[in-house]
Design a protein that fits this description.
Order of helices and strands: EHEEHEEEEHEE
CATH class: Mainly Beta
Structural class: alpha+beta
CATH topology: Cathepsin D, subunit A, domain 1
Distance between the termini: 30 Å
Number of strands: 9
CATH architecture: Beta Barrel
CATH superfamily: Acid Proteases
Radius of gyration: 15 Å
Length: 139
């Protein structure tokens, strides 16, 4: 199986809430489309500094993280990122990677949206057993 990419929309969740409260208009919600690497070995959504700046997502904390190569580093965390794929959505935190590093879609948002990697087509798909809504296990 090769690399799997998906076209997703990233939205500033704070802007969504402001629009729901009629503080800003719908046209002021910061959003962008991103072709993101689906990485089931990664836990979280990882965006880069360029995406974070464009969406104006505030840093809420710093965390120590271990990279795939074993190196341990500190990264900024942003919250209230709404991620949309096809008829699925999730609200999550994101790790901010330096510069224009390739963004990653990790296991937590994948599970929350109830999506799968199709093994022969090498693409992200909504779960075929429940294509109209996300279904999660509570246990």
């Amino acid at each position: 199986m090769g690399l799997v990419y998906a076209d997703v929309e990233l939205i500033n969740g704070y802007d969504l809430e402001s629009a729901r409260r009629y503080i800003i208009g719908e046209e002021e919600i910061k959003r962008m489309h991103v072709n993101i690497l689906v990485d089931t070995g990664s836990i979280m959504l990882a965006i880069n500094e360029n995406i974070q700046e464009q969406l104006q997502l505030p840093i809420v904390e710093k965390r120590i993280m271990q990279l795939a190569n074993g190196k341990i580093e500190e990264y900024d965390i942003v919250s209230q990122v709404e991620l949309r794929f096809k008829n699925r959505r999730t609200m999550c935190n994101a790790v901010v990677l330096p510069g224009d590093t390739e963004p990653l879609l990790g296991a937590i948002p994948l599970e929350d949206m109830d999506v799968l990697i199709h093994p022969t087509r090498n693409e992200l798909i909504v779960h075929p057993d429940h294509p109209y809504f996300a279904q999660m296990k509570l246990k």
